[in-house]
Amino acid sequence: MDPECRLCGHRTRSVFTARVLGRHMVEYQHCGNCGLLQTERPYWLDEAYTPPVNPSDTHVLVRPLAHSQEVSSIILAFFDRNARFVDYGGGCGIFTRLMRDRGFDYYWMDPYSENLMARGFEYDGNGRVEAVSSFETFEHFVEPREDIAKILDVSNSLIISTELLPDPLPGPEEWWYYGLEHGQHIAFYSQRTMDHIAQEHGLLHYRCGSVQLLVPRRLNRAMLGLISRLPAGVVNAWNRLSMPSRTLTDMEMIARRTKLEQRQKEYVYQER
After folding, report:
1. Contact 202, 216 (CB under 8 A)
2. CA distances from 65 to 69, 71, 99, 241 (A)
3. Which of 123, 137, 202, 247 supports an S-S bond with 89, CB 3.0-4.6 Å?
4. Which sequence spans correspond to the domains of the chain?
5. Chain-wide mean pLDDT for the chain?
6. Cβ of 76: how many Cβ atoms within 10 Å?
7. Class of domain 62-163+190-242
8. What are the phi and psi torsion angles at 258 (to 5°)?
């Protein structure tokens, strides 16, 4: 019996095998219902995440810089800019820190990584937020249906990035995004897959530059096209005029909190 799609539960068919991490022959399975391409059950992930950051990901700094500009313009155009936002799968916190520097009330969330750059601004799970961003995470989901549901518990507006499957389906050596050398990419989404996710959760799917949006309301496509073409200088000027940076106020808040914690520890020590 063919294995089930881990997104929609329908039966899949094997389309090719590929050598992952240079030694594991892995079957890739395609779902005819939702269009997801998945690997077989990924038994190699402990090996793939040692070290946790993929060494071939040379975009680890360029990507959050670019996304901070894109997401800033999207928020300014379509969302409540003064509301709370969360970056899911935020890694070491670079994107969260950049967005707070741009003035947005952004918080970090990642069950698998340590927050180094945005400490003090972890999402505590208290209440829903205006929107969740999640960049280069969907392709890592072992259980896409469950992981997407977890994100939607935080907000029903998502701003994400993941490369969409080309059509026709490329072979294992024809598409870099399979990531055979690092083995961390195990789920691949087509346009049909994104439409399926949107329909499943009562959302609409849009693309804007390098990011995709899953949102509960219609957006102006002409405006999406316009902001996707705005030069970085224009976005940055728009951002500066609209949102005062939180860099200094965050520093002052963290400093006050640290002093308070130090005094409390000193008091406890003296009491002993």
Report:
1. yes
2. 7, 10, 10, 19
3. 137
4. 62-163+190-242
5. 94
6. 18
7. alpha beta
8. -65, -45
